[in-house]
Amino acid sequence: MSSSPLDLTLVWPAFIAGLLVASTHVPLGIQVLKRGIVFIDLAVAQIAGLGVVFADWLGFEPQGIAVQVSALGAALAGALVLTWTEKRWPEVQEAVIGVAFVLAANAAILLLAANPRGAEHLKDLLVGQILWVNPGHLALLASASALIAALWFGIGERLGRIGFYLIFACAVTLAVQLVGLYLVFATLIVPALATLRIAGARLTAAYALAALSYAAGLGLSMLTDLPAGPLIVCTMTGLAVSLFMASSLLIRN
User: Fold this and answer.
1) What is the pLDDT of residue 252?
2) Prediction pTM value
């Protein structure tokens, strides 16, 4: 992909979308890591994706309000079920989350089985199409992300288990249709894991890592013509390993 004005018009909305996803997922990821429920993001994102596939199966427009309602409704329902299972069987919550992910993924495959474009829809759900983010959707995404971030930083500690899961479901639903399931999971977990041994400025370091990863990944996509989503995931992981090792060395010294 050559560097041109057209490329830049694709990249700047994608970069802003990435920053907006990171604005909510980075702090939530730190909390997820603290709670020890790392794969909840994959499960809730997959359940939201199942809602998208179900609405498509019913014949609704891909970008219509019905699809958004279906995705959010599925994610909220999944979040409430996971809230109940965490309270009832906390010792097997991670296993329950894994089963929920597998069940939602296979249900989506079954719904897409008769769709001639089913493989393409499934790829979009997993990998996303961040370079094709509609700039017109950014204002809505920014408003929703600001509301989620304000709730989390304002009353996050007082929300309780149900409040956490509901906010989490809303954040994931917004992100998964924009950047795909893999990038949503990476943005949630990788910065949180990379900054695990950083005290004081951990949140700032995690945000910086996410922003740099999106910028570098999108830049590499322009230069190499490779898919942006996987490049961002690989770039973020590489930078995270470097940061984690550097912070570990500093602690030892």
Assistant:
1) 65
2) 0.84
